[in-house]
Amino acid sequence: MHNPFTLEGKTLLVTGASSGIGRAVAIECSRAGARVLITARNEERLRETLSRMEGDAHTLIAADLSGEEDHTRLIACIPALDGLVHCAGLTRTKLFPFVDRETLDEVMAVNFTAPALLSARLVREKKLRKGGSIVFISSISGSGCVWAGNAMYSASKGAINGLMKNMALDLAQKGIRVNSMNPGMVETPIVDAGVITPEQLEADKKRYPLKRYGRPEEVAYGVIYLLSGASAWMTGSALVLDGGYTLL
Ligand SMILES: NC(=O)c1ccc[n+]([C@@H]2O[C@H](COP(=O)([O-])OP(=O)(O)OC[C@H]3O[C@@H](n4cnc5c(N)ncnc54)[C@H](OP(=O)(O)O)[C@@H]3O)[C@@H](O)[C@H]2O)c1
Asked: How far is CA 141 from CA 69, 83, 208, in A?
């Protein structure tokens, strides 16, 4: 059967695969036929992801991406890739007057610096094949959607989209495409990491025209499109996936 979205024959690296969106991306990409290397810090939760993936060609590599030592170790044990999906991320909520260097560095290290440096090294060390696709999980909060206390996270996601567009231009000559997915709120553990009460969450969901948050696999389906041959002419795009939130 003709399937332009197949990932058959592709080898991918998915970061943040121990939880939420990264876990769903790893599982759905394995179902779409890819061989997937998964990484995050927590090995036990990575094993749980691995156990839910289809096929047995996949590999788990535990690594802390906030430091470059683990980038070196990770890169040393991965083969040439057809796709790279940056899902690792964290959020820290502080009203702007209380923003401090330590927290800002923590957020930027995982949400911006790690994906930027890891991508650059993979390209330099020829671990991304011609025709390859890099996907960042950014957020609608990186392009103008604001929430109280979300300045650091928002800035890190805005930075990712700026990086993505410049990378797309610089890497086009190598035949490597670069795009981002920009979800609204998605039902994952990161949603519980803030200071929002369950009542506030329920009220917030009602603000979405489709009246709910997204599901991790719904982000994964968009990622599959960006990794597959179906999006071969798309680079430098920030795809929004938000149940209509930004319409209003
Ligand atoms: N959920 C949402 O509403 C939403 C909306 C828009 C965008 N996003 C973005 O989507 C991405 C995934 O978020 P999620 O909702 O799936 O969150 P999550 O369930 O909390 O998952 C975050 C992942 O990042 C990994 N991670 C965190 N720090 C790391 C580090 N230092 N080194 C390596 N891995 C690290 C975690 O693994 P370990 O703890 O095992 O290291 C985990 O696998 C993030 O970039 C987030 O900003 C989420």
From this structure: 30, 25, 15
